[in-house]
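Final paragraph of the annual report: two paired records, presented back to back.
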Amino acid sequence: MKKLIKSAVVGLALVGGISAAYAEGVDTSVEGIFNALTSSANLQATVDGLVAGGANPQSIVSVAAAAGIPLDAVKQLQVCTNSAAADATVLSASCLRQKSVVTAYAAGVNDPMKFLPASAAGKQNKQETKTEFK
């Protein structure tokens, strides 16, 4: 029994260390958010890491929309930011409301070029120019 508890504590410490390291090295640019969301196996954990890294919650939702993530999947996410008072005795969290999520999602759908990185379209093919000699 002690071995099981010890393993659980070590596992939690390891996961906590990984999430803290993830939050420190988060790319919060549009390209970084896009790459994180499109390659994510756990969307909620990815969103939590992006928010902890300082990404704008509305931008995350808009990029998700532009990336083609369904609205139902985005609505199920809890997009919250945590803050602490100066004396660190009061912690608070503010979460996006459903109306704000839908509004941000619509912005991403209506203007995908604003919320997609240039590399999202793939590599550009070079066009050959033909010249005729007469």
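The closing record of the year follows.
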Amino acid sequence: MDEKTPPVRRRARRADAPRDKRVNLRFNALEYAVLLTAAKTNNQEVGAYVAAAALAVAKDEVNPAPVEIKDRLRTLAEARVSVNRIGNNLNQIAHVLNGGGEETPERLAAVLALVERAVASLDAATIATMQGDR
């Protein structure tokens, strides 16, 4: 191990609940490489990584989702961020207008374009989720 590589974390041993049950798993070379990469990213040994991931799923602490659903969730999250930004822009415009100021048609058009894109993105993601598209 060199100076740049942090030591691999080991889970603390628990005297009150020793782990004496063993599960033997087999992976092909590609599957193992994927697990090894993920484990190293999390600074763990492969066995510890697999055990933690399996327990997290079993306890419903995480919910594994297919890539397609993750893409839809990412789209919804991005749309949510856009809607929040639009809300900020609308608040700024309202502040100016309530103070007796004027807004430029360009700025109003830009905000409306953001609204249209965000709503279209939300609509598409919502329809895809409702239809259960794969």
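The chain has four helices and no strands. This concludes the annual technical report; the extension proposal builds directly on these records.
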